[in-house]
Specification:
Strand 5 and strand 6 form a beta hairpin. It is globular and about 40 Å long. The chain has a six-stranded mixed sheet, sandwiched between helices. It has 236 residues and is an alpha+beta fold. Helix content is 39%, strand content 14%. The protein has eight helices and six strands, in the order H-H-H-E-H-E-E-H-E-E-E-H-H-H. It has one domain: Beta Polymerase, domain 2, CATH 3.30.460.10. GO terms for molecular function: transferase activity. It comes from Schumannella luteola.
């Protein structure tokens, strides 16, 4: 194990042998999370950014919905694996990383029954490298957000899934993986987030809303947990 007082950049052999994240210095944990792609600087990883509905280019108009928070389903990981295989078959080596993220990736976490997947490509702006192939595989190109990490979103009808496309230098996918691991290991924050999700979903029981309203209501708790996680890793 590397002396945390004198961190070094991990070698390829280090990255290959990293199996127990609890034993890794925080610098090496970041490297582990970004091994398949570029490594964003810590300031980019810890920076929060706000959603601006005016910056969204909707290719499929958003529809109000009743947000349902389901109890944990042991089938969620298997659904991810099926979707992962479809994406891999469609994109081949253009898919630099395919990760199960969001609440359905956290054991024991209540969630909207929608599989969230982070797909990392070389450059999300180069839609010609992936968009048509994903559409041919049955995914629907829903939106692009040029001013928010050059995010692109595809969806799948059955099983319901969101495929978030990121460029290889974007920090948001790193944040998602770190949060997934943190919630898996910290029951107190897992319960805090579950409570926030149920409270955020409650107003939609009678009046359907765009899912962005639900997301914004729970955002303060997400940031609280993220900041606690970043401090624990020595990033704040």
């Amino acid at each position: 194990m590397v002396d945390e007082a004198q961190p070094r950049d991990p070698t390829p052999a280090d990255l290959t042998n990293m199996t127990d994240r609890q034993t890794l210095p925080d610098r090496e944990y970041i490297a582990e999370q970004t091994a398949a792609v570029s490594e964003p600087a810590p300031p980019a990883i810890v920076a929060h950014s706000d959603f601006d509905p005016d910056d969204v280019d909707w290719l499929v108009p958003a529809q109000p919905e009743h947000v349902i928070i389901a109890e944990p389903d042991p089938a969620w990981p298997e659904r991810f694996r099926g979707l992962e295989a479809r994406i891999r078959d469609a994109l081949g080596e253009a898919a630099l990383a395919i990760e199960h993220v969001g609440s359905t990736s956290v054991p024991g976490m209540p969630a909207k029954p929608i599989i969230d997947i982070d797909l990392t490509v070389a450059d999300s702006r180069d839609e010609g490298a992936y968009a048509a192939a994903l559409e041919d595989a049955g995914f629907v190109f829903v939106l692009r957000e040029r001013n928010w990490h050059e995010h692109r979103l595809f969806t799948n009808a059955e099983p319901r899934a969101n495929i978030h496309v990121w460029g290889s230098d974007q920090a948001e996918a790193v944040r998602h993986r770190m949060l997934r691991d943190w919630l898996t290991e910290h029951a107190d924050d897992r319960e805090l987030y579950a409570t926030a999700k149920r409270a955020a979903a409650a107003p939609t029981a009678d009046d359907p809303e765009l899912v962005q309203a639900y997301n914004q209501r729970k955002e303060p708790v997400i940031r609280e947990i993220l900041d606690r996680m970043f401090r624990a890793h020595g990033l704040l």
